[in-house]
Amino acid sequence: MRICFISEGCYPYVAGGVSSWIDSMIRSFPKVDFVVWTVIADRSISGRFVYELPENVVEVHEAYLNDKDWGLKVKSFSVPKKARQALRTLLLGRHADWEGIFDYADKMDPSPNDLLMGKEFYAIIRAFYDRYYPQINFTDFLWTMRSVYLPLFQVLGQDSPKADLYHCVSTGYAGILGCMASHIHGGGLLISEHGIYTREREEELIKADWLQSFYKNIWIEHFKKMSKAAYERAWVVTSLFEHARELQEQLDCPKKSQLIIPNGIDVGRFEDIPQKDEDDGFVEIGAFVRVTPIKDIKTMLQAFSLAKKADPRLRLWVMGPDDEDIEYANECKEYAAYLGINDIIFTGRIRTLDYIGKMDFTILTSISEGQPLVILESFAARRPVIATDVGNCKGLIMGEEDDDLGKAGIVTHVMNVRELSAAMLELAKHPKMRAAMGEIGYRRLTSRYTLGHMRNAYTALYRSLAERNGTTWPE
User: Which of 164, 78, 158 is nearest to 121 (CA)?
Assistant: First the structure.
């Protein structure tokens, strides 16, 4: 069986999170041939892998969101009538003829630049403008619409690999590529969302101060269209926990195709990890994170500075890649220096197993999450967690409805400096409580969030999809 993993901006170019999940999935099924197809920004990132690919990865393909500059010379061409009608449904209606778009993109002769600078696209945009936005400047509107659709046609214009099953780890551009490849080659389509892609893009756009409100709405509707297309065409759509499933349903995901499969990690890897030297006198706080805005490192630093003044024993370790958003990482380091607080250590990329056992507890201050693997890793090391109430963080720390094990840490509100600071002081003050919470986390982890649990669930799912597609399941 040949499974194609399709992702956007992660494996094998970015470490941690969803990338770690993809890597563990591929390694969990060594008899399956995997193809990796990743949407990345442009060719400057090509081939810059941070993972050593498993032997059963047989091909790697790249799709570029930005591959060509706008040209002054545009090739003259005519879009066939059927394709022109499909384009109109995509731009003007809620029910797009995606199959028509896929068929056109598969054989598209003009470049995306030629298409979006051509007369047919202009005519459709003019009709859209006249119907909904005649009060604003048309030139700005036209170029905005070109910028909205350029990434889509950029990725759709690239060749798709053949596979028996296309496994997308988000909707958005990855989901649309899965839809197109499934349509062209006849493979099945599976979507596994870790975060709800459309909601995440919507949150980012709402906060953007460089975009006027009506343009924000156009972008948001664009992402909703792509997600709706993927949900409707997927054979199965998985989520990590119940609330995420509910959000998918609100975004028009058919309930009959939904399935909840939680994350899982290999607990055995944490059995003999290095432990803390109890004689150094510090209370060690570990943040195993990518240094990016969505992790809200600045709030973490501010909260730590308050806690450190109250308890000088505290030391904060910020551990993870700092090259994904270099400007933000530098701002965080400068902010730490500005606070004038000692004992904030930025390590850069590390191996989690080398450090997590040396921490007294871990912290996650994200403004958006799915079901963070770092919380499960903390539980595997028997360490309690402080986390903001996003994604499934509360469910992991406090337990789901059918779980009465107790608290495995402390949950705070997003961007609440005082709550985070108080939580740090609370765990620092009570070592016996930390140990008890760490044991609760370990028991919760082993009851439902192990790699074995996840592998069994996906084995059953992959096997059923293979049978549906008339393919032999090799495991």
Answer: 78
For residues 17, 25, 39, 192, the Cα torsion angle rounded to the nearest 10 degrees is: -80
Q: What are phi and psi of 420, to 5 degrees?
A: -65, -45
Specify the amino acid at residue 164.
D
H-helix or E-strand containing 139? helix 138-156
Q: Please answer whether residues 16 and 45 qualify as being in contact, where contact means their C-beta atoms are separated by less than 8 angstroms.
A: no
DSSP state of 272: T
Is the domain of 474 the same as that of 366?
A: no
For residue range 90-125, what is the model confidence (pLDDT) as tens digits? 988 768 999 999 999 888 766 888 888 888 899 999
Please tell me the pTM assigned to this model. Answer: 0.91
CATH code, domain carrying 344 = 3.40.50.2000
Q: Where are the alpha helices (DSSP H) in 186-257?
A: 197-207, 213-233, 242-250
What is the maximum span of the chain, computed from C-alpha positions, in angstroms?
77
Number of domains in the chain: 2
Looking from the CA of 131 toward its CB, the CA atoms found within 13 Å total: 9
CA angle centred on 76, ends 109 and 148, rounded to 5°: 70
Q: Using only C-alpha atoms, what is the Rg of the chain?
A: 24
**Pair (385, 469) in one structural domain:** no
